[in-house]
Amino acid sequence: MLQDSEQFDVDAAFETGLIEARQLWSRMGTTPAFQDKRVLEIGSGLGSLSASIALAGAKTVVGADIWEPRVVFANKKVRARFPELTNVSFTSTPVEQLDPAEPFDVIVSQNTFEHIADIDAVLAAIRRLLAPGGHAYIGFSPLYHSPYGDHGELRAPVRLPWLHLVAGRKQVIAAYNRANREAATTLAQCGYNGHKPAMFRRAFERSGLSIEQVRVNPGEGRLKRAAMAAFRALARLPGLEPYFTVGMYVRLRRP
Ligand SMILES: C[S@@+](CC[C@H](N)C(=O)[O-])C[C@H]1O[C@@H](n2cnc3c(N)ncnc32)[C@H](O)[C@@H]1O
Fold it and tell me: What global pTM score does this model have?
C-alpha cells in the first residue's frame, strides 16, 4: 500500500488538519468542553485533531488508528511540534481491544466511520469505553454513494460526480490495486465499507447508546450551505437518500 508521504506532503497535511479541526465542531454544531477530560479519538490519522484537543486543555488524549505508519508519524510529529503536550499518545491497538484504567469522558471520530469495516464492533467498543453520561462525537464525510464518495480512488482523468458509481466497484477496486500495487478483491479491502446512510442509522440505533443528534450535510459558507440544503431536500425523495447524503455528524451518549 502506498505510504502517505508518497502521495502528499504529510507535514502540510498535519498543519491543515489543525486548522480544519474547527470545521468538525462547526459541522457538529457544538464544541465539546475538553478541559480536564479524558478523550479518545478513533481513526486519528496524522494526529492533528488529537493534538488540537490536547491544546484545548484535555487531561489526556489517546489517538487510535489501525494503520501503524500513521500512528508512528503522529507520535513523532506531535512530540516534535508540541513538546509541551506530554498527555497525547497514539496507538495502533484496535479500539475493540483497548483496556484503559479509566473510561473516557469523550470519544471523537472524524472522517473515519465510512472506512471502518465493522461498525457494530466499534460502536460496542465506544459503549464499553465511555463513562456513563459520556458523549461520542462522530462526524464523517463523504459517504460512498455521495458524488465523490470514492475519495478519488477511481483516479479518473476528470472527476465527475457519481462517476465511481457509474463505473462500478470493480473499476474502483482495479484502480486502487493499480495505484497501490495490491490485490484487493472487495471495497472493504480498499478501506471503504460502502455503507448507505440507513445502514449507519440502524447501527447507531442498535448500539445501546442514546442518539442525541444526527446532522446531515452541514457545510461552510453560503454557497456550500445552500447546495447542501438542496441535497438534503433531494435526499428525502424515495430512493435518493444515499446519493445526496454527503456527511453525517452524530452525537451519541452513553446512558
Ligand atoms: C480518512 S482517514 C481520517 C484520518 C483523520 N481522522 C482525519 O480526519 O484526517 C481514516 C482513518 O481511519 C483509520 N481507520 C479505519 N478503520 C479504523 C478502525 N476500525 N479503527 C481505527 N482507525 C481506523 C484509517 O487507518 C485512517 O487513518
Answer: 0.97
